Amino acid sequence: MSLITPSNRSRGPHKGGFRRNENNRIYGNPFPLLFVEPPPSRTKSVLNLLGLSLTRLENPHCEGIFDPTTRSVWVSNQSDSLVLWRRGFYGKGDLSRSEPSWLARQINLRKMGGKQLTSEEITARRRAERQQFKRDRAAAIAAVAEEAETIFATEGRVITPALSGPAIPSAATWKPSTPSIPEASATPTLPEDVPEELEPLKDVEHLQLTLQEAWFLIWNLGCLTVLDRHTLESVSLKDLWTSFQLAHLPPLLPGLTSPMLQFDNPFLVNYVAYHHYRSLGWVVKGGIKFCVDYLLYKRGPVFTHAEFALVVLPVYEDPEDEKLSSIQLQNVSPFGWSWLSTINRVNSQVQKTLILVYVTIPARSRVSLEVLESPACLQYYSVREVVLRRFIPARMRD
Fold first, then answer.
1. Calpha distance 232→241 (Å, rounded)
2. Are 360 and 317 in contact (CB under 8 A)?
3. Sign of torsion, CA 306 288 266 33?
4. How many CB atoms lie within 10 A of CB 246?
5. Is 92 left (phi over 0), alpha (psi -120 to 50) or beta?
6. Measured torsion, CA atoms of residues 22, 26, 30, 31, in degrees rounded to the nearest 10
7. What's the pTM value of the predicted model, to 2 decimals?
8. Beta strand ranges found along 174-222 (DSSP E)
9. For 31-35, 215-219, 330-334, 363-367, which range has the lowest pLDDT when averaged over its residues?
10. CB distance 391 to 8 below 8 Å
11. By CB neighbour count within 10 A (0-12 exposed, 13-18 middle, 19+ buried), where does 153 fall?
12. What digits encode the pLDDT tens for the residues 359-370?
């Protein structure tokens, strides 16, 4: 049972009701599978009295291609990409920060002149405004300091430069003096006598699934089929299970015909943690931006920020297995307090609770390596959680 639960603290009155309702409509389904209710009828009423239902399961049957080089599965079909992202927030666009929006951004630049901004463009505008604010504030502070030095040199009076006031811009009063996004980014205008001939846009972006996300969709939900990149034929479940493990193993040494599967394979260790939290209803996304392995969202990135940050810490049941292994797992060796304090402070500043997820790797002496040939080996792994919070004396005196 998980030790962490979503926060229920009040967030005050909500703003942007239209956007919130629109997000609920678009991203309201937590899984790609849909349960479709038939229209009301007398037959349905009778079956409900008997404890029966006419509800049918709608499976999108998405398709992807396994790429061992990037250790990911590529979903190129636009409709499949939208289904997997909007119903559970699986994967990310390879040309976008999260949701595949490259085509929408290009259409916006070509037809709308950049008037309707996508999430990528809104983020770029905010970053540009933030940088301009810092430059304007630094220039204003430098001007006040220079004025104080001039008064001291001419009149001999000592004036302490003020870091706030009408002359110093603040986040509440500052307004950008120039457009945040350069005008050159918009579609260039052509002379009137030259007809505008634009090539039709082709969506070159694909949804990129991690191997953990892909296997969860294949094995647990059955809504993803992986094709061979050369023959475009469906790959069997057993071959995929082995291929996902081999993708994380080091290159073969001369004289070896096939690599040996191991319990400490990074794919298995990370999938155990991913499966644990996905099964509890969390939306699990990568957390490299905050120096962690995963982030946990209550509903998804478009609704709220992540509440928890996860660091996966593998633990060998038998310490001798670590010496015999050919894989150098991260976070196996004991880490120092400086590392722990740094990563905890980073996540505390962004209102995230740090969770240390200890994944116990079964011992070879207890479990045979033959079980690695099927997903049945996952039953031998275990997960322990340690919630870590900073102690702040001013806030935690009670």
1. 18
2. yes
3. positive
4. 15
5. beta
6. 170
7. 0.77
8. 207-210
9. 330-334
10. no
11. exposed
12. 999 999 999 999
Average pLDDT over residues 231-236: 93
How do beta strands 56-58 and 62-67 pair?
unpaired
The residues that are catalytic are: 297, 305, 352
Work out the pLDDT band at 159, boundaries 50, 70, 90. Answer: confident
Higher pLDDT, 359 or 21: 359
Q: What are phi and psi of 64, to 5 degrees?
A: -145, 170
Going by pLDDT thresholds of 50, 70 and 90, the confidence category of residue 157 is confident
Q: State how far the Cα of 214 lies from the Cα of 68, in Å rounded to an integer.
A: 13
The tokens of 170 are what?
A: 């603040």
The backbone torsions φ and ψ at residue 234, rounded to the nearest 5 degrees and listed phi first, read: -65, 135
Q: Share the mean pLDDT of the chain.
A: 83
Are the C-beta atoms of residues 212 and 91 closer than 8 Å to each other? no
pLDDT > 70: what percent of the chain?
82
| pLDDT the model gives residue 18 | 78
SS3 140: helix
The token duo for 324 is 């015999």
Q: Are strands 224-227 and 62-67 parallel, antiparallel or unpaired?
A: parallel
Q: What is the DSSP string of 330-350?
A: TT-SPPPHHHHHHHHHHHHHT
* Three-state DSSP state, 147: helix
Name the strand (E) or helix (H) holding 285.
strand 283-286
Q: Is the pLDDT of residue 70 over 50?
A: yes
Taking the C-alpha atoms of residue 214 and residue 79, their distance in angstroms, rounded to an integer, is 17
Calculated CA dihedral for residues 174, 178, 184, 185, nearest 10 degrees: 20
Q: Is 18 left (phi over 0), alpha (psi -120 to 50) or beta?
A: alpha
Going from the C-alpha of 27 to that of each of 302, 303, 347, 360, the distances in angstroms are 8, 9, 26, 35
Paired sense of beta strands 56-58 and 34-36, if any: antiparallel
